[in-house]
């Protein structure tokens, strides 16, 4: 089998100017189950797909509250994600102890990125194998950032990471222009639609996803299952009514059809194959 | 202490001398909220306090009981009001050198804040809390910064005014004062202060307080600074003096009617 000469060490460059170990860490993010985030001027919504290791086990928690004004959704190695969430919680609580104010989201994200960067430049370390969608609210409004194992970070209007996130990204790209002025409830609905895109055929249920909201006058919190179920039901009923009239979201229509053909159980088996063992 | 052993147990700081009494001090600061922001006033005197040590004992065992105290007006243009960043104004009474150290801490704080270059900046509330933490932390080390601080500012249309004491006691109010101002100025402010003071009325009110302090606080001098902070920024006015009248009969014969007093 072909063996890469330059990928055994994080600090070794390939002649093409790449750091393979860092790229592999970014690959771990792609293997993890999907996480999405989107924001308006006043609210941020984070969502993720919960995938259980086996029929007998529960799933891993993928959305964490950092502070009243910051939350994260992760994809990749959940263990690394928890470590970074704890770090972020620490930074927030220390800041509010010293200044009795909330840490600006942008600053936390830079600190987090710097922490990830250190791991790309030390021979005795490994990069974090997790991507974080950081949603937050501060003086300058609502923000959504993506933090990458490479130490890069980007601000987004809406973004998706993890396995089959491309489908969600396509959905979000089609609609993001309206997000800035969206209501909170519309954002939640769009979040659920984006999550559904990543399922590719599986039925969207409240047990397979987690949604969290944060906004002006609304501290970060994870929506409980009953609420999510209610929202899913409401737009699914609405969707069925609109379908014959020619719904603009063609993909959603197709998917509904695919659901009926496939049946959730055997689809579930094939989707598991795409998940890296690390993610579980 | 007789043996070395207990000293060593106290750790590396046990040999160092803490501030046990102030050396050069400033007196009251008075500040109020007004219509557009905060006004702050202080005089510019700096008292040097003597501590004569009896029997040539080493400084290390200096105790107040062994000292004979006195003070003299040594400095006459001490600036005790300084701007902190874009949104805050700090006034201090107490040890001047400790105030200068606090200013160094805050310069560093503001520098690091600016270095983020991300549009966020620390407001008066944040700076006030930071000072509270510094003061309380130092008192816990039995090495207090010997000051009473007054912090005022405006950020995003929000006025803020608070104080911190030497040992970390802190609070917010519409008008605050340090030192003698607490006893002589605040009763006046409680009576006459209101939310919609204009700049002129605010200055007049502060001048009234400062004049009373000048008459009754022997450390005060007739050279004042008034500073203003609004959404637009900080203005510290040139020093000036107030017109005094020492012809009041109570001043001419102070002991009259006060039996037993000298």
UniProtKB/TrEMBL annotation, chain A:
Proteasome alpha-type subunits domain span: 6-28
Segments of skewed composition (Low complexity): 247-269
One Gene Ontology term from the biological process aspect of the record: ubiquitin-dependent protein catabolic process
Cellular compartments annotated: Cytoplasm; Nucleus
Region Disordered, annotated ranges: 238-280
Any single Gene Ontology cellular-component annotation: proteasome core complex, alpha-subunit complex
Entry superkingdom: Eukaryota
PROSITE patterns reported in the protein's UniProt record: PROTEASOME_ALPHA_1 (PS00388), PROTEASOME_ALPHA_2 (PS51475)
Keywords: Cytoplasm, Nucleus, Proteasome
Main location: cytoplasm
Family: Belongs to the peptidase T1A family.
PANTHER family (alphabetical): PROTEASOME SUBUNIT ALPHA/BETA
Function: The proteasome is a multicatalytic proteinase complex which is characterized by its ability to cleave peptides with Arg, Phe, Tyr, Leu, and Glu adjacent to the leaving group at neutral or slightly basic pH.
Assembly behavior: The 20S proteasome core is composed of 28 subunits that are arranged in four stacked rings, resulting in a barrel-shaped structure. The two end rings are each formed by seven alpha subunits, and the two central rings are each formed by seven beta subunits. Component of the 20S core complex of the 26S proteasome. The 26S proteasome is composed of a core protease (CP), known as the 20S proteasome, capped at one or both ends by the 19S regulatory particle (RP/PA700). The 20S proteasome core is composed of 28 subunits that are arranged in four stacked rings, resulting in a barrel-shaped structure. The two end rings are each formed by seven alpha subunits, and the two central rings are each formed by seven beta subunits. The catalytic chamber with the active sites is on the inside of the barrel.
Identification of the protein by name: Proteasome subunit alpha type
Species per Swiss-Prot/TrEMBL record: Corchorus olitorius
Automatic annotation (TrEMBL), chain B:
Biological process annotations from GO: proteolysis involved in protein catabolic process
Organism field: Corchorus olitorius
Domain of life, source organism: Eukaryota
Cross-referenced InterPro entries: Ntn_hydrolases_N, Proteasome_alpha, Proteasome_beta4, Proteasome_sua/b, Proteasome_suB-type
Compartment list: Cytoplasm; Nucleus
PROSITE patterns (alphabetical): PROTEASOME_BETA_2
Protein name in UniProt: Proteasome subunit beta
Signal peptide: none
Keyword S-adenosyl-L-methionine: no
Protein family: Belongs to the peptidase T1B family.
Coarse class of the protein's main subcellular location: cytoplasm
Function comment: Non-catalytic component of the proteasome.
Keywords, sorted A to Z: Cytoplasm, Nucleus, Proteasome
Cellular-component GO terms for this entry: cytoplasm; nucleus; proteasome core complex, beta-subunit complex
């Amino acid at each position: 089998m072909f063996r890469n000469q330059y990928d055994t060490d994080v600090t070794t460059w390939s002649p093409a100017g790449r750091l393979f170990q860092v790229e592999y860490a970014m690959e771990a993010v792609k293997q993890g189950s999907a996480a999405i985030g989107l924001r308006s001027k006043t609210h941020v919504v984070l969502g993720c797909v919960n995938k259980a290791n086996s029929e007998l086990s529960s799933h891993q928690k993928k959305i964490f509250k950092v502070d009243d004004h910051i939350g994260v959704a992760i994809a990749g190695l959940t263990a690394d994600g928890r470590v970074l969430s704890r770090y972020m919680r620490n930074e927030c609580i220390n800041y509010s102890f010293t200044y009795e104010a909330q840490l600006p989201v942008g600053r936390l994200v830079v600190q987090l990125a710097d922490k990830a960067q250190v791991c790309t430049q030390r021979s005795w370390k490994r990069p974090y194998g997790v991507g974080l969608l950081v949603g937050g609210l501060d003086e300058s409004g609502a923000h959504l950032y993506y933090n990458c194992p490479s130490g890069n970070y980007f601000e987004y209007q809406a973004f998706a990471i993890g396995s089959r996130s491309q489908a969600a990204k396509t959905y979000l790209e089609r609609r993001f222009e309206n997000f800035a002025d969206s209501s909170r409830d519309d954002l939640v609905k769009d979040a659920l639609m984006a999550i559904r895109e990543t399922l590719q055929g599986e039925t969207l249920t409240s047990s397979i996803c987690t949604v969290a909201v944060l906004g002006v006058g609304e501290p970060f919190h994870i929506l409980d299952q009953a609420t999510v179920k209610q929202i899913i039901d409401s737009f699914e009923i609405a969707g069925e009514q609109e379908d014959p009239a020619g719904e603009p979201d063609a993909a959603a229509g197709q998917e509904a059809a695919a659901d009926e053909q496939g049946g959730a159980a055997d689809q579930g088996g094939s989707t598991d194959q795409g998940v890296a063992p690390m993610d579980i | 202490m007789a043996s070395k052993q207990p000293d060593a147990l106290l750790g590396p700081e046990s040999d160092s001398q803490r501030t046990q009494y102030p050396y050069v001090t400033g007196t009251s600061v008075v500040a109020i909220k007004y219509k557009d922001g905060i006004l702050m006033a202080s005089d510019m005197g700096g008292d040097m306090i003597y501590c004569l040590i009896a029997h040539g004992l080493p400084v290390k065992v200096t105790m107040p009981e062994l000292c004979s105290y006195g003070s003299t007006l040594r400095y006459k243009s001490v600036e005790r009001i300084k701007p902190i960043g874009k949104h805050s104004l700090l006034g201090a009474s107490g040890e001047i050198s400790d105030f200068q150290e606090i200013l160094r801490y805050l310069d560093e704080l503001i520098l690091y804040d600016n270095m983020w270059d991300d549009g966020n900046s620390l407001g008066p509330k944040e700076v006030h809390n930071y000072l509270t933490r510094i003061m309380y932390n130092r008192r816990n080390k039995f090495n207090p910064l010997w000051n009473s601080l007054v912090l005022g500012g405006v950020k995003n249309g929000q006025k803020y005014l608070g104080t911190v004491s030497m040992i970390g006691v802190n609070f917010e109010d519409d008008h605050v004062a340090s030192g003698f101002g607490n006893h002589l100025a605040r009763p006046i402010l409680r009576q006459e202060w209101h939310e919609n003071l204009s700049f002129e009325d605010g200055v007049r009110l502060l001048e009234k307080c400062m004049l009373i302090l000048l008459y009754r606080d022997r450390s005060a001098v007739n050279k004042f600074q008034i500073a203003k902070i609004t959404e637009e920024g900080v203005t510290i006015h040139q020093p000036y003096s107030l017109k005094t009248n020492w012809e009041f009969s109570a001043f001419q014969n102070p002991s009259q009617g006060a039996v037993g007093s000298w």
